[in-house]
Write a structure and sequence with these properties.
Helix 6 packs across helix 7 (about 190-210), helix 8 crosses helix 9 and helix 10 (about 295-305) packs antiparallel against helix 11 (about 310-325). Helix content is about 45%, strand content about 15%. By secondary structure, the protein is an alpha/beta fold. Strand 7 (about 175-180), helix 7 and strand 8 (about 220) form a beta-alpha-beta unit. It is built from eleven helices and ten strands.
């Protein structure tokens, strides 16, 4: 199969009406913090058991088209000895992989950060692909204030995202490009919109410079929301209006899908905001989700590290996946939160 055909086949498998992507790629420190909230130690066995629980959820493939995995998960097996990437495929879910190496301070730019991981990326992608990964993800983060992010941070992160995307496509792996404008702080909705638009413009300039085929990538942006410490919190309709305005100004129509990150929103907020986005009518791109905590949090709280709670945890995950699947076609309503099925 030609590389372009391989990339298109993965895009077709990921971009499906009523489905989104499960982000289960928490780094070691991040999943340790999540486990701490439920009193579970972050051992490799506990991580294996938890991620196995997620991927074994019956009917998950009805609402989830892809899953982003952490590197160690590619080698983990279920209790029955089935590799977790193979379990995902059996569920009709495309396995993907987080490939960045995390963020560090950007030199000579106080308050800004840059993402590492380009060194050796080609060889790592070859290995990940052999283990079943068909798409990848790279996250860049942007702190927001009256002066942040700096122009240097916007340009440096765009360049890194574009270089990663080019290497991924060269290896036949679909890149998910994730520029996350953080919600930490007390900035306004308007300030978030201003920063998000500047970031996305620069990202797509860089992608074009590096000859990335926009038809064979997905965008994973943050929604336009105010800082979580801001006194006034926007309604889903206001979030949708500002987000669509920015996307239409900055994202080419050639991009097949936009899978939003939840970025610290609660599970209900993330679903309601996605629904409001899709209620605004057809857009050039399919608007869906690539949520981590907003999908997993209810399941994590139900599980609490106890084998007897596995089924209850899976039911909690499936419910959130189903509600977000409905939101991705504008068919969610708040009363669905209380429905048993």
């Amino acid at each position: 199969m030609a590389t372009s055909d391989e990339l298109q086949a993965t895009i077709d498998a990921l971009v499906q009406k009523g489905k989104g992507i499960l982000a289960a790629d928490e780094s070691g420190p991040t999943i340790a913090r999540r486990f701490k909230t439920i009193g579970v130690e972050s051992t490799e066995e506990n991580r294996r058991a938890y991620r196995s629980l997620l991927l074994a959820t019956p009917d998950l493939g009805r609402y989830i088209s892809g899953v982003i995995l952490y590197e160690e998960t590619l080698n983990h097996c279920t209790d029955d000895g089935e590799l977790l990437p193979q379990l995902a495929v059996r569920q009709g879910i495309v396995p993907g992989i987080k490939v960045d190496a995390g963020k560090i301070p950007l030199a000579l730019a106080p308050g800004d950060e840059i993402t590492q991981g380009l060194d050796g990326l080609t060889e790592r992608l070859k290995g990940y692909k052999q283990k079943g990964a068909r798409f990848a993800k790279w996250r860049a983060v942007y702190n927001v204030s009256d002066t942040l992010p700096s122009r240097a941070a916007i340009e440096a992160n765009a360049e890194a995202l574009a270089r990663y995307a080019a290497v991924s496509q060269d290896q036949g792996v679909v890149p998910i490009v994730e520029p996350e404008v953080l919600i930490d702080g007390d900035h306004t909705l308007a300030r978030c919109a201003e920063v998000t638009q500047a970031v996305l413009h620069e990202v797509f300039h860089a992608l074009t410079r590096h000859r990335v085929a926009l038809e064979h990538m997905l965008l994973k942006p943050s929604m336009v929301v105010e800082g979580k410490a801001h006194a006034v919190q926007a309604t889903p309709e206001e979030v949708a209006e500002e987000t669509i305005r920015v996307l239409r100004r900055a994202v080419p129509a050639a991009v097949p899908g936009i899978n939003f990150l939840s970025g610290g929103q609660s599970p209900v907020e993330a679903t309601a905001n996605l629904n409001a986005l899709n209620r605004r009518g057809p857009q050039p791109w399919y608007l869906s989700f690539s949520y981590g905590r907003a999908l997993q949090e209810p399941a994590l709280q139900a599980w609490r590290g106890r084998p007897a709670n596995v089924r209850q945890a899976q039911e909690a995950l499936l419910k959130r996946a189903r509600l977000n699947g409905a939101a991705s076609v504008g068919a969610y309503s708040a009363d669905m939160e209380d429905a048993r099925s």
